[in-house]
Specification:
The chain is of the alpha/beta class. It contains 8 helices and 6 strands, in the order E-H-E-H-E-H-E-H-E-H-H-E-H-H. This is Oxidoreductase.
């Protein structure tokens, strides 16, 4: 279990340990190369073998790109893109050498949507989606599987951290249960699927619509859900 600065991770670790298995909470900042290296070192300490990995860290924000804080946008790139590539290289290198392993990347249904009012975030998820699907193909004969998880809006602390509670998607619109998303992602990873859209019928419908709607329409859809209300 990994988190940047959330004390709750230790409580969650204790709860998971109580139902079986060994859980080691790790607090690192994956926006830095040092944080990624530290995580990998701790995860593989004492010869521990990684049979599966869920690369899930991500942040976002809403608003017009030109009005936003550049440091915040670059932090999205650092965490959602750079750290994903860095950690994947470390994890997959060992797995391919061993000839077995499973990796689950958290992408998003917005990976296929031009992100009006979420331009950097949606672009980062487009990167993750393409990256994961490319690796799925590259490694198909290696004994290692790569799966992309594409959830819709999920009821977690993401929207609060992204300061998006004043947007339709972060506020009144319905959100999926994170346990349902995690279960569908885990099952898809264990099957070795290329990708899975999770979890509700609404999210699956959005994923299907993104495959056929024109980009201009999808950009306007994203504006409707991501533009701060009252602006």
């Amino acid at each position: 279990m990994v988190a940047a600065d959330e004390a709750q991770i230790h409580v969650a670790g204790q709860e998971l340990s109580s139902i079986g298995g060994q859980v080691t909470p790790v607090e690192v900042d994956l926006r830095s190369e040092e944080g990624v290296a530290s995580l990998y070192e701790k995860a593989t300490a004492n010869g521990r073998r990684l049979d599966a990995a869920a690369i899930n860290a991500g942040i976002g924000r809403a608003g017009r790109f030109v009005d936003g804080n550049l440091d915040e946008d670059l932090a999205i790139v650092d965490l959602n893109v750079r750290s994903t590539v860095h950690l994947a290289r470390l994890v997959l290198g060992d797995m391919v050498e061993r000839g077995s392993g499973r990796v689950l990347f958290t992408s998003s249904t917005v990976a296929a949507m031009p992100g009006s009012y979420q331009s950097v975030y949606n672009a980062s998820k487009s990167f993750v989606q393409n990256f994961a699907e490319a690796l799925h193909d590259e490694l198909r004969d290696s004994g290692v599987t790569v799966t992309a998880l594409m959830p819709g809006p999920v009821d977690t602390g993401f929207f609060t951290r992204a300061k998006m509670r004043n947007t339709p998607v972060g506020g009144p619109l319905p959100k999926d249960d994170p346990s349902d998303v995690a279960k569908q992602g885990y099952d898809a990873m264990m099957r070795g699927d290329r990708k899975v859209v999770a979890a509700s019928l609404m999210s699956k419908a959005l994923g299907a619509a993104n495959m056929v709607l024109p980009d201009g329409v999808k950009a306007r859809m994203n504006r409707l859900i991501a533009k701060p209300m009252g602006r």
